[in-house]
Structure formats: structure tokens, C-alpha cells
Amino acid sequence: MIPLIAAFVGWFTNWLAVQMIFYPIEFRGIPLYRRQEVPLGLLGWQGIIPCKTRPMTEAMVHMVTSQLLSVKEAFARLDPGQVANLLAPEVPALTRSVLKDVAPGWLTGGPAVLMSGLGGISQGAVRHLNIEFLKQLTISIQANIDTVFNLQNCVVNQMLQDRSKLGILFRKCGQKELDFLTNSGLWFGFLLGIIQMVVALFWENPWSLSIGGGIVGLATNWLALKWIFQPVDPVSLGPFGTIQGMFLRRQKEVAQEFSSYFANNVLNAEQLWKSVLTDPETKPAFAALFRDHVERFLGKLTFGAMLGLKSETISSWSNAAIEKLPQHVPVTYSYMDNQLGLQDTLRVRMERMTSRQFERVLHPIFEEDELTLILAGAALGFLAGLVQQGLETGAIKFPSRRRLWVWFRLRIQRPLRRFRNRRSR
């Protein structure tokens, strides 16, 4: 039964290690003492990814911006004229809404009253000015994209609002490796269990089951993690072929999954607009840019007269318009998603990454608390061995302090002393 139990221990500890990476989303336990962004509390646990969402996301964004994507290059693909044509039909409704909320009483009658105050300028001229306003605004956004849009804030804020989102991305990229990590525990554990069985046959000490269980739990986690990411670069074994970490051999497949999820769920047009219009760090820059264009638009509309409008009034109008823009920009989503082409850009450039660059896509989620996962496997394996020991002997008897001390001196202290003496010579 020892190899079979060892196989179960190996599988269970690896399965639990995977669960500990992703769950629970929120800390579960008694929060007597916790350090920030450390999954293990004094009495409780939070999944590694949900706990470390911020540093992991920042590292991922750094990888994306330094190796995969130029925001300025992507936004330059938009045609300002096309964006203007899509938004132009929304302008009348937006104008009515803004005038209703913030304009003086003489304007609350709507655009018709405003038109009468402009000397009867034609509707066609107003539409032309609207499109020109939107076109120039788009050009200014493209030219100042690094000021009005912060990619890191856009991604990090999303991940912090929904801490399961980053885990979903990593699962999509590394599900095969996660399944291997779980299932490999079964046969790694069985093979180690055979060794454990042989030891038990020649060493009649019930504690060999508990110690062996700890070793099985530790070794299965460690071996599986190494098998996934090592070696990073392909290593030729001559006639036996080439070996490389499992994850690294799937570069094209992972590139497809990563680019699809990232472009469609994280950096889609809806999230880009939301970041531009609401990010506290970049919203002031966009508001200033938008106000300048509103002022120029009103200047052209009134032939420079401005109808006595004060700077504060224009600012209040533009600010009100920005608050209402989220209701009107969805008409651009489909065009922007297609034109930006982020999925293809990310996929192609990720496929071209070197093995060492690509290894950093997924490995960080294991590296953050790799030792914790391995030690957790050892602890669980030891407990399983302890249960096995109890079933075999009918009782679990802990050795006395004296016996432990004698064992420590004979097995640890004396060999260590002899080793030190040999080195000193």
C-alpha cells in the first residue's frame, strides 16, 4: 500500500499547491497578523495571485510595454476622420444633455435657441464644425496619448477591482502546465513510494512513513515545477532528441491565448476609454485638452464672439461633457478594437520572444511563493504519512526528548562535526 498512498499524497499535495496559487480570492482565516502582499497569515491564507495582484500585474505590464506593444504606435492606427464620423451623430444628444444640466437659462431651450443666438448659422455648417472638432480632438489624443492614457494604471486598476481576472489569464496561458503539476504528483509519488517501501522493509521504524510522506510531498512539488520551466533553452541529448521546459515548448500556443484574452478582456476599446475618462492621474490632462478644443469650437461657431461666455463657463461645460462621454463613446468600440489590432500585434511579437524572455510570462506566479508551495507539500505529505503510520501501528507515539536528542547527536551533530573537521584539515 505504501506506493499507492505515496501516489495519492503526491497528487493531493500538488493539486492543493495549484489551488493555493489561485484561491481563495479574499483572505480566509483569522486576521490576527498579516503582512501586506504575503499570502500566509498567522492563521489563514489568500491565493498567491489574488494576494500579489499588484506586483504581478506591474511586472506583466512592464513586459508588455517593453517587449510587445507601443501604445503610441497602436493609437496611430486610428483614422481621426472615421472616429469623428462615428461620434458626430452623438453630439446633438450630448449637447442637449450638457445644456440642460449646466447652461444658463437662455440656453435651456436647446440647440434651436442657441442657433438663433448665432445669427442663423446653417445646420450643415454646424455638422461640419462638429466633425472637424472631433477629428482634431482625436488627432490631439493620438499626439498626447502618453499624457492622457496610462497603460499600467488601466491594467492594474482592472486587476485590483476583480482579483480573479489575473488568475483567469494565467490559467488560460498555463492550464496544461497546471494540469501536469497536479497529475505528475501521482506518478512521481508512486515512484518515490517504491523507494519508501524498500526503506520500510529494511528499516523497521514507523516514523519512516511520516518522514517519507514529507519527502514525497516536497519532492513531487519541486520536480513538477522544475520540469515545467527547466531547462529554459533547448538542450540537445544527441540521439535522444532535445529537452526543454514544458511551458517553453508551447510558445506559439501560449502567445495565441495570451493575446486573445489580453486584447479582448483587458485592453479592449471599452477599457481604454474608461481609463482615459476616469483615471485620476490622466483625467486632468484629457480635461485640459478637451477644454481647449471646446473653446476653439465655440470660437469658430460664434466667429470669435464667444457670446460673452466666460472661461469658467466653458470649463464647466467641457467637464460636464466629459462626465457624459461614457454614454456616447460605445459607438466607437467595434471600430477601435478592429483598427488597433492589439491581438495580432501581441501574438506576433510574443511568438518572436526568446526563450528567456518568454519564460517570464508565466514563471513569476510560481516564483513568488515557490518555496511556500514546496514546504506546504512537505507538511501535508508528513501529515498523510502520520495518518498512514497510525493506521499501520494502531497508534502514533512520539519519541521522548531523550531519544530525539540521541538521534540528533548520532545522525546530525556528529556527521556534521566530522565534515567540518575534514574541511579544516
Describe the structure.
The protein is an all-alpha fold and 425 residues long. It has a domain at 68-159 and 261-356. The protein is built from 23 helices and five strands. The strands form two sheets. The chain has a three-stranded antiparallel β-sheet with strand order 1-3-2, with no helix packed on it. The protein has a two-stranded antiparallel sheet with strand order 4-5. Helix 1 (2-22) runs antiparallel to helix 22, helix 3 (53-68) packs antiparallel against helix 10 (151-161) and helix 11 packs across helix 12. The longest helix has 39 residues, at 164-202. It is elongated and about 100 Å long. The relative contact order is 0.15. Mean pLDDT is 78; it is low at 106-120.
Features:
73% helix, two-stranded antiparallel sheet, 5 strands, 425 residues, mainly alpha, three-stranded antiparallel sheet, 23 helices
Structure class = mainly alpha
Q: Which oligomeric state applies?
A: single chain
Specify the helix fraction band. Answer: over 70%
Strand order of the largest sheet: 1-3-2
- Which stretches are low in confidence, meaning pLDDT under 50 for 5 or more residues running? 106-120
Q: Compute the number of strand runs.
A: 5
Strand content: under 5%
Radius of gyration: 32 Å
Distance between the termini: 47 Å
Largest sheet, strands/sense/barrel: 3 strands, antiparallel
Morphology call: elongated
Keywords: Membrane, Transmembrane, Transmembrane helix
Protein name: DUF445 domain-containing protein
Transmembrane segments: 6-25, 180-203, 209-229
